Amino acid sequence: MGKLTEQQKLYIIIAVAFIFSGVGFYKYSVTPDRIEIKRLEDDKRQKEQKFSEDSKIAARLPYVKAESVKLRKELEYSEKALPKEKDIPFLLSTLTKISEDNMISFNSFSLGGVTSQGDYSTLPITLGGIKTTYHNLAIFLSAIGNLPRLISPVNIQLTGVTTKFVQQEGGLEKKEEKEETVSVGLQLESYIYQ
């Protein structure tokens, strides 16, 4: 290889100039644009992911609202079933009304001391001097079980009572004795949320 001609030197200088200008263009123009494009693509991907998550949350919103309404109703029911206070007037009036509706009378209503059971307390209620039939007693206990407030029978003492009644047969009075009435000692428990 010999010496390069002037024309060859010119071609080499032009080629080197093109290479340097290409490298410079790439380094100072294309690379920053690529970095910016990559940053924007990453930002777009993050925003699409957040949008997807938010869309899933928004799609669940009706379900969450319905669940919230359901839980509020359950809370209201629970607050009625397990109140935070004794509310003795409610207990007395409710038990009196239920007993009257079921042809039961009681002579005494007494409350025991409140006993703590962890998350709740119990309030013993004793109804004394009850005289009724088995059937009416069963309906009375069923009505207590159907109250919105939790009241449970915990002790029932039944004693058969002989009743005399007069039956008319053809104008004649006939006395018979039948056991159709019971004397009941009844202890209930009402529950209170602590």
Whole-number tally of structural domains: 2
Name the overall outline.
Answer: rod-shaped
Q: Report Rg.
A: 45 Å
CATH level 1 class label of the largest domain = Alpha Beta
Cα(first) to Cα(last) distance is 105 Å
Number of helices: 3
CATH architecture of the largest domain: 2-Layer Sandwich
Quaternary state of this entry equals: single chain
* Low-confidence blocks of residues: none
Element pattern in H and E: HHEEEHEE
Number of strands: 5
Beta percentage is 25-35%
**What is the CATH topology descriptor of the largest domain?**
Alpha-Beta Plaits
Q: How much helicity do the residues have?
A: 40-55%
For the largest beta-sheet, the strand count, sense and barrel status come to:
5 strands, antiparallel
Task: Calculate the mean pLDDT score and round it.
Answer: 84
Description:
It is built from three helices and five strands; from the N terminus they run H-H-E-E-E-H-E-E. With 194 residues, the protein is an alpha+beta fold. It folds into two domains: 1-81; 88-193, Ribosomal protein S6/Translation elongation factor EF1B (Alpha-Beta Plaits). Strands 1, 2, 3, 4 and 5 form a five-stranded antiparallel β-sheet that branches. A hairpin with a 2-residue loop joins strand 4 (151-169) and strand 5. It is rod-shaped and about 155 Å long.
Architecture blueprint of SSEs:
Layout: H1 6-81, H2 88-101, E1 108-111, E2 115-116, E3 120-132, H3 134-145, E4 151-169, E5 172-193
Antiparallel strand pairs: 1-3, 2-3, 3-5, 4-5
